[in-house]
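Fold sample X.
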Amino acid sequence: MENWNISAFNNPTGLTYQGSIFSPPMTPEVIHELNLKLDQIRHKQNLTLPVERTQAILQHLASFKLGRYLLFKGGFNGYWLSDSILDTKMDNEMSPFEEWLRFKSPYICANRERFHIFQLEAHKRLISNINLASIPCGLMDDLLRLNYQAFDNIHLWGIDSEDESLVLANGNAQNFGLEHFTTLLNQDTFQLQEKTYDMVLSYGHYKMSGQHDQLVKFYQQIQLSLKPNGTLITAFHTSNFLTDTNQAGAPDLNDSLLQHVLFHDILESDFMHPHTIEEATQILNESGLKIMEIHPDSLGILPTFICQKMEK
């Protein structure tokens, strides 16, 4: 397969760079790194698809902003996840592969539904005079997009260890006119204030997928940060996107296969390591959280858990 050259890409300039939230422009240095990735694919063992097809997918990724971010970072951050699940408009300038990633890949489809379940379940539990937290907050869309008009004295908290996310969350709060009710903290999510929040929404743990002890510590901190009888809304990947396609409602096999090639063979990412319902339940219970409800998504791969703080 031929190496890239700058002229092979449409509009290689005008891309954004914001610290770790970036899409690298197609400079000679970036092209060199991408060619190294192509060569690494050539020498990999046990690829799901033939080498040439895997390399072609990598080249498709390199042709658009989100794809380049994934290639250089290995997974989604708060910015790109929000952008992918909230932007549901088809763009005529999108390549077929970007269109697939945004609108057909099981991960994004399940996450889009998970986001709406979070919104619905959080809104059911809104009352006046409460503190709500998003941990880690990313762009904080989970809280900022709720309707608070019927309630008084609501305070929103966004906690994240990444400055870029907090800057974007601040701009987001201003866009929704909620900046005066929002506090943003650059804080380690393993060192939260105790008995502060009535309800916490959290989906950032996917970066610790497969690390049982780390997940328990993370959720223990959330449990400590909740007031008595406080509520946690969270979600776990509980199915393997490639091998569980025979289940009712499971993703299309071709979509699952392509996603496996993307995240396993090309990105070598383990952030979607699946947990069984039993494993997720054990993690939450060990953390001092009692599962009250489980709401599955239609694909059956990213259920939402509604938990309550267990008092000793």
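Fold sample Y, listed below.
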Amino acid sequence: MDNAEFLSLLASRLGCSIESASSLSDSFIQMLTHELDKGSTISIPDFGNLHVVKEDEHVVKSPVSNEPILMPPKLVPQFTPHPEFKEKLHII
């Protein structure tokens, strides 16, 4: 499903325009990004948790020159599905 299909389905289910669905989707993504950037965990009942994990700096080797490269620390978003959500996926 691409973004256009998602927005069309969302608009249909909410009974609103695609523009309104797009605005809602954009606001939701901005809110998620802001909260994750602060280090918050976002819990969505019966779906799962979104959180960030700090990946420490580490050294990797360049595949071209085989020289060591220091990779800076970064925040990596992760999703942990709720057990009921995982179970529903296996049933489908």
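Sample Y note: The radius of gyration is 19 Å.
Also: The chain has a mean pLDDT of 94.
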